[in-house]
Amino acid sequence: MDSTRLITYLAGVGRLAVAFSGGADSALVLAAAVRALGPADVLAVTADSASLAAVELAAAKKIAAELGVRHLTPETGELAEPGYAANGRQRCYFCKTTVLTTIAEVAAAHGFPALATGTNADDATDPFRPGIRAGDELGVHTPLRTLGLSKEDVRAIARRWGLAWADKPAAPCLASRVRYGIPITTATLARIEQAEAVVRAVLDDRGLRYRDVRVRDLGGTARIELDATLAAALHDDPRLLEAVRAVGFTDAAVSSFRSGTLNHEPG
């Protein structure tokens, strides 16, 4: 059984820190580590960064508390890294190098020399994941990838264990919403976070159910990506479009959600 293999693997690693984004993958690694080692020998570390939405940080804190794990949230300085701020196609490599180095140093200082991430087997085959190379260079453990566990395997184990976040939608960093070549700044990330918040507020106010929400920064204009049915119904909705313009975008349009859509643009 996959869950047994995961627990056995983590028991063999021993006392462990987890680079914990609050997403389903790293949450499963954290939960499995607790089962393998006990909460006292597990540490959750979340990078408190401008690229992490406040709602995601809050979710990470809640999950760590439910698992009874100590949770540290050091600030990370990836915005000061020129390769990250320039927002080229290797942005994630520069980001992960900075973030994982900081997390590893913090973890080691608290007595946790081993560090794991939630990289899964699907991530390893995605051509748009330069951040994985950074983790490999730093020697972090990737138990899900090592054991060949996919995103669906992760969700299946989490459901079997009765974990409330088993079907939590993917929530990549805010920088992933910015078209390549547009510099990453604190203001850019804050505007995206605000825009996604107002989109959710409009949908919630109307009692509409949704799963995925993205606001892509195309260089001053925004593309609001929603689940296909919602996108079709709201493609020219004035309230939704004006809400996004009001946070600083010059214009906005609605489209169907596609994971990693900016990665597929030419350039």
Number of continuous helical runs = 12
Strand line-up in the sheet with most strands: 3-2-1-4
Major sheet size, sense and barrel closure: 4 strands, parallel
Distance between the termini: 43 Å
> Which band does the percent of strand residues land in?
5-15%
SSE class = alpha/beta
Structural domain count: 2
CATH level-two architecture of the largest domain: 3-Layer(aba) Sandwich
User: Could you tell me the radius of gyration in angstroms?
Assistant: 19 Å
- Under CATH, the homologous superfamily of the largest domain reads HUPs
**Fraction of residues in H or I helices:** 40-55%
What is the CATH class designation of the largest domain? Answer: Alpha Beta
Write the layout of secondary structure elements.
Blueprint: H1 2-13, E1 16-19, H2 24-37, E2 42-45, H3 54-67, E3 70-72, H4 82-85, H5 91-109, E4 114-116, H6 121-125, H7 131-138, H8 143-146, H9 151-160, H10 186-205, E5 213-217, E6 221-226, H11 228-233, H12 238-245, E7 251-256
Parallel strand pairs: 1-2, 1-4, 2-3, 6-7
Antiparallel strand pairs: 5-6
